[in-house]
Amino acid sequence: MDSYSAPESTPSASSRPEDYFIGATPLQKRLESVRKQSSFILTPPRRKIPQCSQLQEDVDPQKVAFLLHKQWTLYSLTPLYKFSYSNLKEYSRLLNAFIVAEKQKGLAVEVGEDFNIKIVSKSQLPSENREGKVLWTGWFCCVFGDSLLETVSEDFTCLPLFLANGAESNTAIIGTWFQKTFDCYFSPLAINAFNLSWMAAMWTACKMDHYVATTEFLWSVPCSPQSLDISFAIHPEDAKALWDSVHKTPGEVTQEEVDLFMDCLYSHFHRHFKIHLSATRLVRVSTSVASAHTDGKIKILCHKYLIGVLAYLTELAIFQIE
Amino acid sequence: MSPQKRVKNVQAQNRTSQGSSSFQTTLSAWKVKQDPSNSKNISKHGQNNPVGDYEHADDQAEEDALQMAVGYFEKGPIKASQNKDKTLEKHLKTVENVAWKNGLASEEIDILLNIALSGKFGNAVNTRILKCMIPATVISEDSVVKAVSWLCVGKCSGSTKVLFYRWLVAMFDFIDRKEQINLLYGFFFASLQDDALCPYVCHLLYLLTKKENVKPFRVRKLLDLQAKMGMQPHLQALLSLYKFFAPALISVSLPVRKKIYFKNSENLWKTALLAVKQRNRGPSPEPLKLMLGPANVRPLKRKWNSLSVIPVLNSSSYTKECGKKEMSLSDCLNRSGSFPLEQLQSFPQLLQNIHCLELPSQMGSVLNNSLLLHYINCVRDEPVLLRFYYWLSQTLQEECIWYKVNNYEHGKEFTNFLDTIIRAECFLQEGFYSCEAFLYKSLPLWDGLCCRSQFLQLVSWIPFSSFSEVKPLLFDHLAQLFFTSTIYFKCSVLQSLKELLQNWLLWLSMDIHMKPVTNSPLETTLGGSMNSVSKLIHYVGWLSTTAMRLESNNTFLLHFILDFYEKVCDIYINYNLPLVVLFPPGIFYSALLSLDTSILNQLCFIMHRYRKNLTAAKKNELVQKTKSEFNFSSKTYQEFNHYLTSMVGCLWTSKPFGKGIYIDPEILEKTGVAEYKNSLNVVHHPSFLSYAVSFLLQGKKWSWYLDYLFSQGLQGLKLFIRSSVHHSSIPRAEGINCNNQY
Fold first, then answer.
1. Residue A124 contacts B, CB cutoff 8 Å
2. Is B299 on the interface with A (CB under 8 A)?
3. pTM here?
């Protein structure tokens, strides 16, 4: 196949490609960013290692405690139209009414100050404690989502990441209400093996005072009739030692380092079990910082790196809605 | 959606009336077909069809016949009558015809359902009646409740009962309300005992079950049944639904993911169901859609977003609810100023209220409404367009079936969705940015088979942009598929690229006349645009040349390639754009030496049009007398003249291998063909040979040969010879003077 080459064009034209998108509308800018994104198949090849940042220190540990040690299902969310932080009370009332209309009796909705939503069961029995049991929690989040914010006009509020804990039927009702009210769109956010490897590397790279969990990888082998799962657990300090041996650039993680890190694990495994893990699919990564499943489920364990984890998840969510 | 285009939409429609799009809408589409205020009564068949007088009379007769038939069934069989069977057959036929054509009104269904289950007639008749219980729009809940009451009387046979349950399952979505039916839950549940009914009752219960229906005694009963009958998929389905509602009640483990629980009950009515849905999908909000709206989210639904992909049209729900609860006076006044979407029926109404239209709460819903498509096409409100963009991008991504493994069962739905989008694009005569972005992401993963026709149509609606920017994202991926796929795929790709070229040309040709438009999305020079178009044409030229080689000069493929160049050769005259690009030699010579007459004829026509365009351009240059950046280089003229010389040399002057195609005489000697000089002229050219023979058989004079050819429909040849061959004693090619004066 000979390579394509355009002969000198017939009319002598004076414009260059970059002339095309000057003074573009927001829509044009969006398309531009999609084009850029599609041209590089890989996401940016280097990222910062999560640090315990200033921002992190300002966060009250009590306030974010409810985020930790729970399994969250991830969703990406397009910008909310005409959403206002000053109307949270009103939204709470409307959402409540909506849920009642959906015949889920005996539930109450609380929209917290930080725009997290709780569904609380109003227990009829007096013996139960007054508080009511939290049945469902969901929260919206955007950490360092600058690339998206750039192209969004003032009528929209960008909260690209939504995390839910509780029955999916509740997520469905609440999601539906948001979609109808703010013309946004929820999609489940799956994490592919590529991004799981990144998580594994970044979270292994985090400095920990003490480790609360082993570093564990789960691979899935697609074979019939039943799929085969291969679990590989490593002592977190060994994992860190391995990381330190492949890590070159201070403070940053690069694509080569991620690949090298995973390759080392693969070859180690192959030496012992004669199985090529690179031919299987990585489905779960757990570390002391957090654990993530390819289905889009995440559990954050370490308060210190919360912001870092959320920043990466926000990035993935933005990638999905771009 | 570019703001620049919006203003000119009306012209766009007129201009493109020659376009090949099958979805082309006429202005009459502005009139919304249905009036929602009386949509309850609309169920009389045929009313929502804007038909002519003649057809109307037909409908009237049909309706009378139907009324008679229904009356007949209501009275019951007349025992004494002699032609009983004949009359019965006639009336049955009437009912069946109307039902399958337009559906029956809910009152008619009510009556006939009663008859079918009451056992007045025989089993065969009951079956036929049940099979044609197809609603025009909806079925009333009362009819169903009445029908169920007949089941208790024991007048109908087992097979009728089975059919009834299958019907109920198939039509479930068209029943207007379901509260009463849900009250019969216990009755249905008891029917599970009947082995024949069990699968269908299970399916009905599956659709009907609410959380409050799940009771411990029912769970026990189901488990008993399961123990008795073994692991039946329908029982499992119901059990898993129960487990979903009340996990505490069911401790047995159920298979996690089972795709098909129920035999397809509705297959008897598959086409009818589609027709009813089509009828119900009218552009204005109608009761059925509202009922089916996202409000009643069903458990285990694949996507909890809504039942249909495209949201239901609703005015802003937030403002509405606020208004309902605590409406202050000022709120009330504000609201009275705005025009609710539900009342929007016609284009004039849209024009009158365009300043105060209440927008839908979910912008995606405009896709089904032609009036609102007009609206979003002409508003300059960025948020409106952005909302639509976000919704469409995400929905495409979510629905796209080749993104997810094992998602192919939803293929039909995705295809329909793409069709809706393409219809909207054709209606607006412009592509959506969301679709372009979607193509960037999905094309590299596309197998070239799935939704091929829709996908290629999306390609042809890519908004005009810089070719070199789009090429690596789109066309390079498309080329890979192009080269590795069948000839039919190649032809479809060429076809859609031809449409893409046409859409770009139309866009640009309007753009030039409306030049002083501020806020243009493409702040670009005409030269830049022409450059982009010319790159597209060269790219298709490259694809075509390679494809010809791969498919060993296939005639069928060549037709599609020449179709593309029929567009290309007329750009200057048809679109008034300063661009002439000739075809590559690989295409020209393949066509010239083709064995197919129609190919050669098409080539002649294209050459004729090239000539017209180039002479027109030349004339304009002479008139303007000034140097313009768009004067074609002498190279284009030379290239054309070169082709022309070859062609006339072959077809007319019998000097084929001199000026045009040069082949060393020595090589020609070696071929051993004695009369090679004549062998490609109009008489001996392989593609004309059959004409020459049949001409000779008619024994006419040679001087009439050309007239004979023309009379055989070779219009292209006629035009070519008339314009390009100078009739004199020494025939020669009539080239265009290529000495560029500038």
1. no
2. yes
3. 0.65
Neighbours of B224 (CB within 10 A): 10
Element (H, E) at B519: none
Q: What is the ipTM of this complex?
A: 0.81
Are A176 and B304 an interchain contact pair (Cβ–Cβ within 8 Å)? yes
Given a contact cutoff of 8 angstroms between Cβ atoms, the answer to whether A204 and A239 are in contact is yes
Q: How far apart are CA A219 and CA A85, in angstroms?
A: 42
Q: A142: closest CA among A85, A91, A199, A192?
A: A85
Nearest to A181 among B306, B361, B524 (CB): B361
In B432-491, the residues whose Cβ lies within 8 Å of chain A are: 433, 436-437, 440-441, 465-466, 468-469, 472-473, 479, 483
Please list, in sequence order, all residues whose beta carbon lies within 8 angstroms of the beta carbon of residue A318, skipping any fewer than 6 positions away: A76, A145, A147, A148, A160
Q: C-alpha dihedral over B358, B363, B369, B370, to 10 degrees?
A: 90
Q: Are B386 and A9 an interchain contact pair (Cβ–Cβ within 8 Å)? A: no
CA B61 vs. chain centroid, Å, equals 34
Q: What digits encode the pLDDT tens for the residues B507-527?
A: 888 866 554 443 444 446 778
Contacts of A226 in chain B (CB under 8 A): none
Joined tokens for residue B167: 């019907």
B725 within 8 A of B717, measured Cβ to Cβ = no
Q: Which residues of A touch B210 (CB under 8 A)?
A: 103
**Which residue is listed with tokens 């010239």?**
B592
Report the C-alpha gap between B538 and A5 in whole angstroms. 8
User: Pick from A121, A92, A90, A95: which is nearest to A108 by CA?
Assistant: A121
Is the Cβ pair B391, A183 closer than 8 Å?
yes
How much of chain B exceeds pLDDT 70, in percent?
Answer: 75
- The answer to whether B654 and B677 have CB atoms below 8 angstroms apart is yes
**For residues B649 and B659, is the Cβ–Cβ distance under 8 A?**
yes
Note the pLDDT of residue B456: 95
